[in-house]
Amino acid sequence: MSFDVAAIREQFPILKRRIDGNPLIYLDNAATTQKPQCVIDALVDYYSTCNSNVHRGAHRLADEATGRFEAARDLVKDFINAPKREEVIWTTGTTEGINIVANGLSQLLSTGDEVIATGMEHHANLVTWQQACKVAGAILKIVPVTEDGELDQAAYDALLNERTKFVAFTHVSNALGTVNPIKEMTAKAKVFGAWVLVDGAQGAAHRKVDVQDIGCDFYVFSGHKIYAPMGVGVLWGRESLLATWPVWRTGGEMISTVTLQEATWNVLPYRFEAGTPNVGDVIAMGEAIRWLMALDHDGLEAHEKALLDRATQLAEAFEGLTIIGNAKEKIGVLSFVMDHGHPADIGFLLDRQGIAVRTGDHCAQPLMARFNVPGTARASFSVYNTLEEVDALFVALKKVRSMLA
Ligand SMILES: *Cc1c(COP(=O)(O)O)cnc(C)c1O
């Protein structure tokens, strides 16, 4: 079955935009994806028909809003094959999900305990553990990254031991595109009884996620990278852990009983959902997940691989360009530097031709240092990109090269 990219593109109104007369070529999907009309409609419909606070109203709008809000939770449960809907916690995004876990972890660790993260993490999945370890007097160890941009599995094996209490790694690198062997890495950590968190900010958009198959304890992701609005995301965690994990924010909704001096905590998932949630965006995220699950997933992966293969082939033949990150398994991310021109200049000159890429350190400064580059230019592909757009990128890069040489 062929993947109908033209039909998909039709659903994204923003793709009709022009930039200085050029058609927009949006290749910054690892930073955020565009939204299909059905997601935009879900948001507008919520505010147009049933905007209300959830869980507390004794009126029709509150019932409807609560129904849609909780239905979105069920969609997430199916999307990641979570055992229970109560394990799906709404957050503002990946960063907050990781912080919720790290805040609790900092109270559960003891002096001398060890935490493992990796050299390819987004700052959100590194700085958080640095802080948690500092608070607890624990030790942070780092899995190094190979020249190809993979995690050094032998080094990882050597870091694991009885003192390892927690391991955090990304499903997919946002800066290099590397897909990590998360199931195997989780199994290795479990031999020592460590808790495992997987950063799914990129993984959820490009790979099928089955948290039960992975075997991890926490999986976090953001709505805005899977075609949903910004400001909403998910923390999934095992019920047995979340039920006793130290609470994060305190306030309304997350409590059970309150006296002037004491309070007790609500059951999951509300235990971690203090305050009025982002109802409209949660509902729109449910719609995005419904949309994504209706796509032919094998077709999606094959299409994105075809884009990456074409881009890699053109990049390898392009004089003066070096690809950063050549892992055997990658999503559609092409990170590169050029002999002439800082990544920021490349990004600026591509924008002049209507092409949106990301330049800089991609919130992964230690990874840039590992490759001795100040940053990279990154083209990241999504379901709606085409082979013609990949070709156009390299035509544009030729112009960039001649301007910068
Ligand atoms: C984007 C990203 C994050 C942070 O996500 P936010 O939506 O900014 O909270 C963390 N990890 C990876 C791998 C990412 O790509």
UniProtKB/TrEMBL annotation:
InterPro entries recorded: Aminotrans_V_dom (IPR000192), Aminotrans_V_PyrdxlP_BS (IPR020578), Cys_dSase_SufS (IPR010970), PyrdxlP-dep_Trfase (IPR015424), PyrdxlP-dep_Trfase_major (IPR015421), PyrdxlP-dep_Trfase_small (IPR015422)
Keywords: Pyridoxal phosphate, Transferase
Coiled coil: none
Domain of life of the source: Bacteria
Entries under Pfam families matching the protein: Aminotran_5 (PF00266)
Transferase listed as a keyword: yes
PANTHER family xref list: CYSTEINE DESULFURASE, CYSTEINE DESULFURASE 1, CHLOROPLASTIC
Protein name per Swiss-Prot or TrEMBL: Cysteine desulfurase
Taxonomic source organism: Marinomonas primoryensis
Lineage: Bacteria, Pseudomonadati, Pseudomonadota, Gammaproteobacteria, Oceanospirillales
